[in-house]
Amino acid sequence: MRILITNDDGINAPGLKVLEAIAHEIAGESGEVWTVAPAFEQSGVAHKISYTHPMMIAKMGERRYAAEGSPADCVLAGLFEILQDQRPDLVLSGVNRGNNAAENTLYSGTVGACIEAALQGMRSIALSQYMGPRTLEMSDQFEPAITHGAAVVRNILENGIWTEDDYRLFYNVNFPPVPASEVKGTRVTTQGFRRHTSFGVEPHMSPSGRKFLWIKGGPQDIPTLPGSDAAANLDGYISVTPARCDMTAHDMIATLKDRLE
């Protein structure tokens, strides 16, 4: 199996090393793992592509490249420049330091890479490690992903649904913020929504008197509705959320036809 991996935390991020190990286990001894990751951290860029300016790409080692672009850029670079006619069988993104559950999914560069891969007709899975007070106690904060990552990916590959429609399925996986030994299992979930919290801004004045705004996230320990991703994670489960890029509100179409046509 040939696997392309990327992330949004950057080429030197510890979570990428975790993903490399997972990918090598899935690919097997005769398989290939190709890394194309951002040269610098690209958290929060979602599905951004560098449409208005070029990006530099540099070979860092055997099957390992860094690109001065977004995670989605890295997927495009991997598919059309580095691998070209050697299309991968799977695209993996992560392992992100921090959860990409609930509304975080919409901001995530980790997920953005999988969106681009799905649009290109590839099977893709995003992997993220929920952080919390208990992960700080671990010798490695990625312990749940290290221990359970390969098994989860293999399970999705073998038993998941892989469509070939225009907006094909991809998967968003989040590992819970508990020791690996306390992970209760896997739950298939919906994308949740954390109520009464959101991103915002925090102003700061520079020594020169200019105002700067820092983007600030809200609390991450707020459970979402039962059956959704963050609720499962905070209860000790690995969440697997099937997703697709079609943003149409299909449940509203019939009603709006009656009202607007």
TrEMBL record:
SUPFAM superfamilies documented for this protein: SurE-like (SSF64167)
Catalytic reaction annotation = a ribonucleoside 5'-phosphate + H2O = a ribonucleoside + phosphate
Write down a Pfam family by its short name: SurE
UniProt GO MF annotations: 5'-nucleotidase activity; metal ion binding; nucleotide binding
- Provide the cofactor note recorded for this chain's UniProt entry: Binds 1 divalent metal cation per subunit.
Q: Which GO terms describe its cellular component?
A: cytoplasm
**Which keywords belong to this entry?**
Cytoplasm, Hydrolase, Metal-binding, Nucleotide-binding
User: Coiled-coil segments, which residues?
Assistant: none
* Superkingdom in the source lineage: Bacteria
Q: Which residues bind a divalent metal cation?
A: 8-9, 43, 96
Question: Could you tell me which residue ranges the Survival protein SurE-like phosphatase/nucleotidase domain spans?
Answer: 3-196
Q: Which family does it belong to?
A: Belongs to the SurE nucleotidase family.
Q: What is this protein called?
A: 5'-nucleotidase SurE
Organism (species): Pararhodobacter oceanensis
